[in-house]
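Morning. Coffee machine broken again, so started the prediction first thing and wrote up yesterday's gels while waiting. Chain of 254 residues, entered below exactly as on the submission form.
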Amino acid sequence: MKNLRSTLVWGLLSAPWAIATVALTAISILVTVPFIGARRAFFGVGKWWARQQLWFCNASWHSSGWEKLPEEIKNGTQSTIFMSNHESFLDPPLLMGAIPVPAVYIAKKEIKRMPLIGWAVWAAGVIFIDRNNTESALLSIERAAEQIRQGKNVVIFPEGTRTKNGQIGKFKKGGFSLAIKAGVPIIPLATVGGWDVFPKGALRFKPGKIHVIFGDAVYPRDYQTREALMAEVERQIREIANSVRCTAKSGNFV
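Came back before lunch.
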């Protein structure tokens, strides 16, 4: 079976399979919500989607660094903003499994209107931002900061979109402004390998391994400017990603 999952034909089937199972996953989440609650349904079923899709395309993932984070972050008593580079379409569902505490995403409000998928992420508490209107966007950020202060963990891709060439792009300021307003720590993390498994614009998944590495907690209060905060988070993410790539090339990762 493993050899079959490495073939070109199987790889070409993996993308339509992913699309079909996303819809089925959204339906499963909505059906399960009345019985176990929205958050448990979203994260439980969502993690299943990521695992089965990685299995289908003969890929796997590995994470490290979580164990060194402050205890209040690991046990979920301290709300946190996780910031990651964005290599692949697989990153959002993968991080649901790689981050041990529940963490929602910030999404543009248009996603909420999408049948099934939008309904499922809305039920899970995804934070929606209106990017088309400056005044509405500012109000959205204020509401998002309040939700984070009240205990909601959030994942942000500071590049704003998936990489086009496998390299980490320029970081945007919005997520850092949100972190400062919320007054919560940022955990930089890097994902490496998603670009090889399913790069932007690809028609099929390829076999591979994705690494998720957590950096050190960064506290906004320790930085005098937003730019200094951005620089530290970006430094960690780039250094982690480069280190993982070098180690992977050397063959030391198992």
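The chain has one domain: 4-250. Going to sketch it on the whiteboard this afternoon.
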